[in-house]
Amino acid sequence: MDIDLTINASFLPHTDPDASLAFYRDTLGFEVRKDVRYGDMCWLTVGPPDQPATSIVLAPPAADPGITQDERRTINEMMAKGTYATLLLASKDVDGTFERIQASDVEVIQEPVDQPYGVRDCAFRDPAGNTIRIQQVG
């Protein structure tokens, strides 16, 4: 069976739309595709300029009406620890990318290192605590 699928969008939670916008737009160089505000909530859609069909939606975690207060509390606790969500990006020059991102005064989790499973990567946290890993490709 031949299935024709592509990745359209992935969701990551955010806690501060302005800080998230600064990180994804100014630090990572992503373009802002949508900025939707509704009351005190905000949904931002960003993505790499050279990949217009692939987006990341930064959404408020409390916007889902199907979760309980206990679940919201757990999500907030996990976000604060950086264990709730991860985004894996790729770069042809992970060391150079690391240097440029680190210069923006972001929280570094791991400097570039050759992993025993065969990739070179580094990791940061975005303003909401999400882990952003960057792997060397090519």
In short:
The protein is α/β, with parallel strands linked by helices and 138 residues long. It is built from three helices and eight strands, in the order βαβββαβαβββ.
What would your notes on this structure say?
This protein is of the alpha/beta class. The protein contains three helices and eight strands. It has helices at residues 17-27, 69-81, 94-102, and strands spanning 9-13, 31-38, 41-47, 55-59, 86-91, 107-114, 120-125, 131-136. A four-stranded mixed beta sheet has the order 1-4-3-2, with helices on one face. A four-stranded mixed beta sheet has the order 5-8-7-6, covered by helices on one side. The protein is globular, with a radius of gyration of 16 Å.
Structural class: alpha/beta
The number of strands is: 8
Helical fraction equals: 10-25%
Strands of the biggest beta sheet: in what spatial order? 1-4-3-2
Largest sheet: 4 strands, mixed
How many helices in DSSP terms?
3
The SSE order reads: EHEEEHEHEEE
Beta-strand content estimate: 35-45%
Q: Shape, please?
A: globular
Low-confidence stretches: none
Q: Roughly what is the average pLDDT, rounded to an integer? A: 93
Rg of Cα set: 16 Å
N- to C-terminal distance? 30 Å
